[in-house]
Write a structure and sequence with these properties.
two-stranded antiparallel sheet; 5 helices; alpha+beta; single chain; flat; plasmid
């Protein structure tokens, strides 16, 4: 049985959470997936929120970007072994935020092995220790592979390391 608990929010044991301060829960209420034992549903719900919410306020405040980044932190903490595969499965996330001029912008989140070029995927699979990186440069992004010294992938820098 799952033992997820955050404040008064607890897993019911069926993949969904409830507020333990209440007198009970509706077993048909599937509005709050458990981030520990129902991580994919949790991330899918948070992705929907992040892609449709420019800003929110309440006890705290933030943007769609904050929603997604927080959801990924929680998922990694609660399901560290399975979260990376789930992030690739869920796919690209286009979280909303408002820039300084009040215009709606999108921050793109892409996870290693998903959305990268065929060349990058090929290099990753052939180079032990290589790490994929995606640099967010506004509306577009650039991919690169950080390869260990001596791997033959770092070209001129391998010569300097010898």
């Amino acid at each position: 049985m799952c033992n997820f608990q955050h404040g008064t929010i607890e897993c019911r044991g069926d993949g969904y959470c409830w507020n333990a301060d209440c007198d009970g829960f509706d077993p048909n209420d599937h509005s709050l997936p458990c981030p520990a034992c129902n991580t994919k549903a949790w991330l899918e719900q948070q992705k929907e929120e992040a892609e449709t919410c420019i800003s929110f306020s309440g006890i705290d405040s933030g943007t769609g970007v904050d929603i997604w980044e927080s959801a990924v932190r929680v998922a990694r903490r609660e399901n560290h072994e399975g979260v990376e595969a789930l992030l690739r499965e869920i796919g690209e996330v286009n979280a909303l935020y408002e820039d300084e001029q009040g215009e709606t912008q999108t921050k793109r989140f892409v996870y290693p092995g998903q959305g990268m070029s065929v060349l990058a995927d090929s290099l990753l699979s052939q180079t032990p220790g290589a790490v994929p990186m995606i640099f967010d440069v506004g509306p577009s992004f650039n991919e690169c592979i950080i390869a260990p010294s001596g791997s033959g992938m770092s070209g001129q820098f391998d010569k300097l390391a010898k």
